[in-house]
Design a protein that fits this description.
This protein is of the alpha/beta class and 264 residues long. It has nine helices and ten strands. Strands 2-7-1-8-9-10 form a six-stranded parallel beta sheet, sandwiched between helices. A two-stranded parallel sheet has the order 3-6. A two-stranded antiparallel sheet has the order 4-5. The radius of gyration is 17 Å and the shape is globular.
Amino acid sequence: MPEPLANSFDLPPRGKPGLFITATDTNVGKTVITCAIADVLVRLGLRVGVCKPFATGARTEREGLVSDDAQALAYFAQFDPAIGGLPMVSPILERLPLAPAVAMERSGVPLDLQPVRRSLAAIDRGCDVVLMEGVGGVMVPVDPGDPQRTVLDLIAGADYPVLVVCRADLGTLNHTALTVEALRRAGCRVAGLVMNFYNPDDPDPAMQTNRDWLARMNRLPVLATVPRVSDREMNVAEGVLHDEVRAAVALTDWRLYAKAPRRR
């Protein structure tokens, strides 16, 4: 039976379909995959809303903190500036490249969820489908005042179906199974997996067998198998998405997996 989470985010009622994109760890490619899905949906004629509520490692510009991830998401979603611009895409920004709770503690800033609530309400009103991206893995802490409050609480509060981005190489079976188990125990709907960084020419047996075993172990479809490309060939922060990544993600009709929150 699902275990109810006590650390609710109390997010506003929403009616548009959406997906929550999380991952088994940091630097697994959540933002790239989210940008690619946004690109696919835009090409289908949908108004795509994107939101990464917590973004750390932001850079300081004249106008304040700016997140490369937020800029990339807004670019590929062709995010409507009338909704509110980058502050709506990433309403909570921190400069230090740490877990949100740790970064906020270091900067002396308490968690304020009102910007997240305003952002999701505005995006729901102005878009046809919502892509919501987490930060790090599901157990990353996000509240300096409550170390038990994690990305998992945000996912449960958002209540969109969850897409788990995982690696293709050795170690992914364990990390992915733990992530999926945590999501299921919290009552989250897991839509499927995206296996990232796949190299078909790698002779490593793990690389060649993990896709099948990820599906079998977790009883989930692998909705996309995305090739590894070098940083020289792709930089979503600068609006560059590799054609092979775009093609791999475009094989799935993501409209079939996006669902509205159940709790209104």
